[in-house]
Design goal:
With 120 residues, the protein is mainly alpha-helical. It is 96% helix and 0% strand.
Length: 120
């Protein structure tokens, strides 16, 4: 009978070992499932971040092009402003034109007086 009891104890230990192993296997499967879901989540987040980075780089390129276009436009405007400054300096204003006309009219009258005196 002792053999049976010893066999029973062995069977009991083996059964306990199998139960522990089953729990460990379930626990391992649960861990693997959690790791798989975390890996999937991580991959999705990576794709989202990568997409956002690509969109940001595209937007940056667009903004750089816009900055360059605006710089060229500013350069053209600055040249136009400089041209207008030079033109306004060279172009007499209305008061100067009137003063010059008055001066020339006075000179013509003086010349007419001189001619009249010479012809007498």
């Amino acid at each position: 009978m002792k053999i049976r009891v010893a066999g029973w104890d062995m069977w009991k230990e083996f059964s306990t070992f199998v139960e522990i192993w089953k729990r460990m296997a379930r626990n391992l499967q649960q861990r693997i499932a959690r790791l798989q879901s975390k890996a999937t989540l991580l991959a999705d987040r990576y794709k989202a971040v990568k997409r956002a980075k690509e969109e940001s780089e595209l937007r940056e390129a667009e903004l750089q092009a816009e900055i360059e276009r605006l710089r060229r436009e500013i350069s053209v405007r600055d040249a136009e402003i400089e041209r207008l400054k030079v033109t306004s300096v060279l172009t007499p204003d209305h008061k100067d034109v009137e003063a010059t006309r008055a001066f020339l009219s006075e000179l013509v009258r003086e010349i007419d007086k001189c001619i009249a005196q010479l012809s007498i």
